[in-house]
Write a structure and sequence with these properties.
Keywords: Membrane, Transmembrane, Transmembrane helix. By secondary structure, this protein is an alpha+beta fold. It has a domain of 120 residues: Roll (Nuclear Transport Factor 2, Chain: A). Helices cover 36% and strands 26% of the residues. It is built from five helices and four strands, in the order H-H-H-H-H-E-E-E-E. It has a four-stranded antiparallel sheet, with helices on one face. Strand 2 and strand 3 form a beta hairpin. About 6% of the residues have low confidence.
Length: 199
């Protein structure tokens, strides 16, 4: 079937009109409805762009709600207790000396779960060939999670100085995972794992 010139140009025109109609119905992200006024426009994010201000009204609200204030005070006190406990515990635990390889475990015995104590005693029974001394420097809490049992799981980075048999000292960061369980006014360590951060 052969088309005449007129039929050919009509077919082309009809195709162009169909394509134009199809393209004009596609919504573009840059188009905004004309009915939306400036006052109706919403910010593109739900995150506040300015931090909340500490106003007199906020202070009054906090003073009127003693229960909320008590909870906040308890959380701050508990956080300070955990920091203090960890500093003391890590300082004693990482006071390793190859001449007395389990002495540091004995120093923290009353702060360890009995099964963890037994495991650490077995782990440090024989002195390490490449480490003469270990000494705790400092730590930073990377994450803290309170579990359903009220145990607290902490991920830390601690700086430990290792002294080799050649008396060369090197301070290296260690990743430490620790699980604390409440024990009266203090804590017990239920689980402990550490790894060199450089590995």
């Amino acid at each position: 079937m052969k088309l005449s010139k007129l039929q050919f140009w009509l077919l082309i025109a009809f195709t162009v009109i169909l394509i134009f109609t199809f393209i004009s119905r596609i919504p573009f992200e840059t188009e905004k409805p004309a009915a939306q006024s400036a006052s109706e426009k919403k910010p593109p994010t739900l995150i506040p762009t300015t931090p909340p201000q500490d106003t007199e009204e906020t202070k009054k609200k906090d003073q009127q709600d003693p229960e909320a204030k008590q909870i906040l005070d308890n959380q701050q006190k508990r956080g300070a207790q955990i920091d203090s406990f960890l500093t003391s515990f890590l300082k004693d635990l990482y006071q390793y000396n190859a001449s007395k390889p389990t002495a540091h475990v004995e120093r923290v015995k009353n702060r360890l779960d009995p099964s963890l104590y037994e495991m650490l005693q077995a782990q440090y029974k024989e002195p390490f060939a490449d480490t003469k001394k270990m000494e705790f420097r400092d730590f930073k809490i990377e994450s803290k999670t309170v579990e359903d049992t009220q145990d607290i799981r902490l991920e830390l980075t601690a700086n430990i100085t290792f002294t080799g048999p050649d008396n060369k000292a090197v301070t290296e960061p260690q990743f430490i995972s620790i699980l604390l369980k409440p024990s009266g006014d203090t804590w017990k360590v239920r689980w402990l794992e550490s790894a060199n951060a450089a590995d």
